[in-house]
Each structure stands twice: as structure tokens, then as C-alpha cells.
């Protein structure tokens, strides 16, 4: 990505963690690719649906023979490298082939989508995405992470944010221990005191506790996009 800063500097980045503060950014340009897909003509509809959902711009279509067609698109590199090839093979039963080359750099309304786990930003889960897609990708990502991050002894909030604005949230519920299991009858105030003590203990654990994020959670970022249609 190429970023024009308000001071006149042009900065090139290849990692979301290197994105400057939004207040310093004048414009952002992303790489666009010339994409060529060859596939049986019966899959043209599925290919067009996929490329359009990834911000692809149709260029031309040529029939190579009675059964095969060649489609040309322009598409952002960021949309191409995340699960596009797997989705293309899936929707064409493995018959499609693709080739792409760098076309140019184009200005776009891009934002950095951060993921916070238990209030802490996880740089490895951050992505750069188009503003129009940020809400759907943020919601999909926190839903995926909720199913992948193990339960703790305290609630673990998972949030997607753009700057200081939270756009999606899910919670991994705490494992619950029945502290009243050995209280048969007895004074209600004692039971209440045990529950309050458990609540205070979980609050302390949440402050100092570290949440271990499994490798599958980081791989989930690479599968973003396959669920866009369902979410929208």
C-alpha cells in the first residue's frame, strides 16, 4: 500500500501494524491486478458473482471454443490473496484456472480493522479492508474467533474496531464453577457471600489474566470472505 501523509511524505507499507494514525493520512492507494480466468462456460455466472463480491471490475469476456470462456477483470490484490483461489476452485469444481499481473495503484477508501481480545489489540489479527466491507468482515471475524478461543474462568470479550469505534462484539462465556455445590440448605447470606467472592475473584482474573489464542484463530483471517454473502 502507498499512503500519502498530510505532511507530504509518501509511505509504503505491507503490514496493517504499520498503518499510520488515521488523522495523519491524506490518501491511500492499493495495488490492482489484471486478472484472467479460463473456465467452462457453464460456470460464468458463479465466477462473475465471486469477482463482483471482491470488488472486481469486469473488463471483457471471450469464448475460446464452444465450452470454454476467458474472463478478464481488474481486482484489488488484497481481495485476491485472501481465499479467492480456493473459492474459485470450489465454485467451478476445480476446472477454472487464473493468472494475474500487477496493473497499477489506485486510491481507495481503506481502513485498518483491529481485533481486541480481552481489551488488548492483537496485531496479527488486524487487516486492511475497504470501509464498505469493514462492518461485515468485522462481524464475521469476531464470530469465527468466538468459536476458536478456549473458554476461560472469566468472560472474554472479542471486539472489532476501526480506530476507537467498536463495530462488532462477541463474548466467550466463562466456565462456571458451582461454588454452592456443597451448601445443602443453610443460611442464604452465606450462599450470597460465596457468590460475591467468586464474582470478585473472576474480576481480578480478568484484569491480570492472559488469553491464549490458538493458531486456528490466526488462520481464520485467511478465510474471511467465504461467508460475506451469508452475512449480507
TrEMBL record:
It catalyses: GTP + H2O = GDP + phosphate + H(+). Coiled coil: none annotated. CDD domains: lepA_C (cd03709). One of its GO terms (biological process) is positive regulation of translation. SUPFAM superfamilies: EF-G C-terminal domain-like. Pfam families: EFG_C, LepA_C. Gene3D superfamilies: 3.30.70.240, Elongation factor 4, C-terminal domain (3.30.70.2570). The keyword Nucleotide-binding applies. Residues 27-111 form the Elongation factor EFG domain. Its EC number is 3.6.5.n1. One of its GO terms (molecular function) is hydrolase activity. Required for accurate and efficient protein synthesis under certain stress conditions. May act as a fidelity factor of the translation reaction, by catalyzing a one-codon backward translocation of tRNAs on improperly translocated ribosomes. Back-translocation proceeds from a post-translocation (POST) complex to a pre-translocation (PRE) complex, thus giving elongation factor G a second chance to translocate the tRNAs correctly. Binds to ribosomes in a GTP-dependent manner. Belongs to the GTP-binding elongation factor family. LepA subfamily. Belongs to the TRAFAC class translation factor GTPase superfamily. Classic translation factor GTPase family. LepA subfamily. This is elongation factor 4.
Amino acid at each position: 500500500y502507498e499512503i500519502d501523509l498530510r505532511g507530504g511524505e509518501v509511505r509504503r507499507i505491507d503490514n496493517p501494524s504499520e498503518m499510520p494514525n488515521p488523522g495523519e493520512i491524506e490518501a491511500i492507494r492499493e495495488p490492482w491486478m489484471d486478472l484472467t480466468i479460463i473456465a467452462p462456460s457453464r460456470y460464468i455466472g458463479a465466477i462473475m458473482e465471486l469477482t463482483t463480491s471482491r470488488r472486481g471490475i469486469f473488463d471483457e469476456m471471450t469464448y475460446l471454443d464452444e465450452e470454454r470462456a476467458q474472463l478478464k477483470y481488474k481486482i484489488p490484490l488484497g481481495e485476491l490473496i485472501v481465499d479467492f483461489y480456493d473459492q474459485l476452485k470450489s465454485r467451478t469444481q476445480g476446472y477454472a484456472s487464473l493468472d494475474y499481473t500487477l496493473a497499477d495503484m489506485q486510491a481507495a477508501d481503506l481502513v485498518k480493522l483491529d481485533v481486541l481480545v480481552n481489551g488488548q489489540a492483537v496485531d496479527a489479527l488486524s487487516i486492511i479492508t475497504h470501509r464498505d466491507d469493514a462492518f461485515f468482515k468485522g462481524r464475521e471475524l469476531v464470530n469465527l474467533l468466538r468459536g476458536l478461543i478456549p473458554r476461560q474462568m472469566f468472560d472474554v470479550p472479542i471486539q472489532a474496531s476501526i480506530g476507537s469505534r467498536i463495530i462488532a462484539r462477541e463474548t466467550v462465556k466463562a466456565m462456571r464453577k458451582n461454588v454452592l455445590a456443597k451448601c445443602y440448605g443453610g443460611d442464604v447470606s452465606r450462599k450470597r457471600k460465596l457468590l460475591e467472592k467468586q464474582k470478585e475473584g473472576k474480576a481480578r482474573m480478568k484484569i491480570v489474566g492472559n488469553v491464549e489464542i490458538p493458531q486456528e484463530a490466526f488462520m481464520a483471517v485467511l478465510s474471511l470472505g467465504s461467508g460475506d454473502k451469508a452475512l449480507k
